[in-house]
Structure formats: C-alpha cells, structure tokens
Amino acid sequence: MSDDIHAPAAAAPCPEAPTTAAPPRKPRPLEIEELLVINAEGAHYARCPTIRLQRGDGRVATSRPAGSGSACPPETVVLDGVLSSEECDNIRESFEAAGEFKPPGSATVRRNDVVVWIAPPSVLRLLWRRLAPLHQWLEQSEYTPPGLRPAGLSARLRLYRYSPGQTFLPHYDGSQQGWLLPDQGSKLYEDEQLRSRYTILFYLNSAEEFDGGSTTLFAGGDEHGEALPVHPVRGGGLVFPHGDHPCSVFHSGALVTRGVKYAIRGDILFCERDYMGDGTAMKYFTAYV
Ligand SMILES: O=C(O)CCC(=O)C(=O)O
User: Fold this and answer.
1) What SS3 state is found at 28?
2) Mean pLDDT throughout 200-224?
3) CA of 3 to the centre of ligand 1 (A)
4) Nearest atom in ligand 1 to 230's CA
5) pLDDT tens string 190-211
6) pLDDT given for residue 27 in this prediction
7) Long-range contacts of range 180-189, CB-CB < 8 Å, 24 or more positions apart?
8) Highest mean predicted confidence (pLDDT) among 64-68, 75-79, 185-189
9) Which residues, 6 or more positions from 77, have their beta carbon under 8 angstroms from its beta carbon?
10) Cα dist. 167→7, 63, 89 in Å?
11) Structure pTM?
12) CA distance 74 to 181
C-alpha cells in the first residue's frame, strides 16, 4: 500500500491529449452518499455519512493537455469541472469533521496528512462517468498494450491535506492492484487482474487558497531538469502515467508555505479486455458504463 519510488522512465513523444467542451448542466438536489473511511493504519473503519455528491446532473469533466513542448510529460492531462465547488467543500469539511487524518511518518517522501478513503461503487461510478472524455483516450493510447482496456477507478482513494511546511518530495508512483468494495458495507478485496497505469488527482481547493503546492512534473525524469508546475484548480484534476507505464512521470507535490491544500489521489485501473474474474469485478465495472 506504500507509494513506491521507481526508476526513471524512457523519454517518449507527447501524444495529443483529448480536448473537450463541457455539455450544459442541469442543477439537481444533492444526494447523500455514505462513505467508509479507513485510517492509514487500517485500524478501524469509520462511517462518514455527510459526504454528498450531486448525482444526475450530467456533469462531465473537460480535459486538455497539461502543457506543450518538451516540458510536457507524455500522456499527461489536466481536467476541469470534475467536482462542483459544493462537492469539494463538502468532502473536505466531512473529512475534517471525521477527524481521521494521519500525519506523515518519519523519513518518507510523502510529508502530508492522509486519510485512506474506501469509496463505494456509487461514488466511483459517478466519478468515472464524469471522466468520460478520458475513456476512449486511455483505450486508444499508443501505450495501452493491445488486449488491455481501462476498467475504472480503484476503490482505495486517499485524501491529502498539506499544511504549511508539508510537501510530497519528487518520486514515481508505483502500479497498484485493484481494490474493490463490491457492495456498501462489504469487505474490501484486492483483484490482482486489475492493475493501475495512471495516477489521478482531484483538487479540492485552488492555488489562490494557498502558496506553493503545485503538482510539479519533471519531464526529464529528474528534479534538476525542466519542470511543469500544475497549479491546482478547485474541482479539477490531473492524470499522468505511473508504474509499469513506459511514460511513468517523476513528480512532486510542492511545499505549501501558506494556507492548506486538499487533494484526492486515485488510481486508474486496467484489465484484460475479456477479463471477467469471478463475476464480481465484471458486475462492478460494467456498472460503470
Ligand atoms: O499532491 C500533489 O500535488 C502530488 C501528489 C503525489 O505526488 C502523489 O500522490 O503521488
């Protein structure tokens, strides 16, 4: 479950990232989603019943390339409008109220507070649907091996909180196995047939609310080369390859010097095109589309 550090990836050309326009939005009342929160030690589950995501509003994120030229790591996309402002505020306030944040351990590259959030399928399905512009792009990427397809988001999300003085030092993210929580209140399990290939970050507040804190991407694979700072925008996000992906991106969460930054970290899972597992995973993921 640790954030692995990996060897530098080979340089590769930057393929075209998807660019989409937002469809019209219809406001609907918020619906309450019950979430399970597990603290970083895995010591206990806690109900966090106040999280609300707005369902049925047809929200779809827009996506654009994270940068241009040699400073843009391949396969890296910035997202806008994944979450509404109300949802962002609600998530961070609910987690603060739940009081489950765990401070960083000593001598780790991750020097922020974290809550591991085991999100139920309803939340993951909603988020995945909002990421529709990414589905085809991921599937058709020249780096997606034939026979693999994007499956959805791993149930194991992490909520990060960076206070002044906190940072995530430069590192590579490792591929993770898929975590599934088939039904509300059921047991979380790992499915080795599902492997992550991309990191996804959802920003819960904007760079105006804090100083520092950009997600910094190092195209050359080391922190002394060209750096692309991505400044968080509330409700937006960032996607970049990790782990086994040939374009895995060396990156950091820059030091926060004022204010507090909040972000959700997730993993985008891939599976064999015809993978069905024991039926649970298939049911879980086909429900996404
Ligand atoms: O918080 C950020 O901007 C970076 C997070 C990060 O580096 C990670 O989750 O691997």
Assistant:
1) coil
2) 92
3) 10
4) 3
5) 888 899 999 999 999 998 999 9
6) 33
7) 180/155, 180/280, 180/281, 180/284, 181/36, 181/118, 181/119, 181/120, 181/121, 181/155, 182/121, 182/280, 182/283, 182/284, 183/120, 183/121, 184/34, 184/120, 184/122, 185/36, 188/118, 188/155, 188/156
8) 75-79
9) 17, 18, 63, 64, 65, 66, 134, 137, 238, 239, 240
10) 21, 26, 22
11) 0.84
12) 32
Helix/strand/coil for 153: strand
The tens digit of pLDDT for each residue in 122-172 reads 788 889 999 999 999 999 999 999 999 999 999 888 899 999 999 999 999
Q: Cβ distance 255 to 18 under 8 Å?
A: no
Helix (H) or strand (E) run with residue 85 in it:
helix 85-98
Please say whether the beta carbons of 120 and 35 come within 8 A: yes
Of 76, 199, 260, 264, which is best to mutate to test ligand 1, by the most ligand atoms within 8 angstroms of its C-beta? 199
Structure tokens at 141: 């990427």
224 Cβ contact partners less than 8 Å away, ≥ 6 residues apart: none
User: Ligand 1 centroid vs 275 CA: distance in angstroms?
Assistant: 30
Radius of gyration of the CA atoms of the chain, in A: 18
**What is the fold, at CATH topology level, of the domain defined by 34-286?**
Jelly Rolls (2.60.120)
Mutate to test the pocket of ligand 1, among 161, 228, 251 (most ligand atoms within 8 A of CB): 251
The H-or-E segment that residue 283 falls in is: helix 280-286
Give ligand 1 pocket residues (Cβ under 6 A). 3, 160, 168, 173, 199, 201, 215, 251, 253, 263, 265
Residue 222, CA atoms < 13 Å, CB-side half-sphere: 2
Check whether 256 has a pLDDT greater than 50: yes
In 3D, which of 81, 239, 251, 20 has the Cα closest to residue 150?
Answer: 239
CA distance 175 to 197: 6
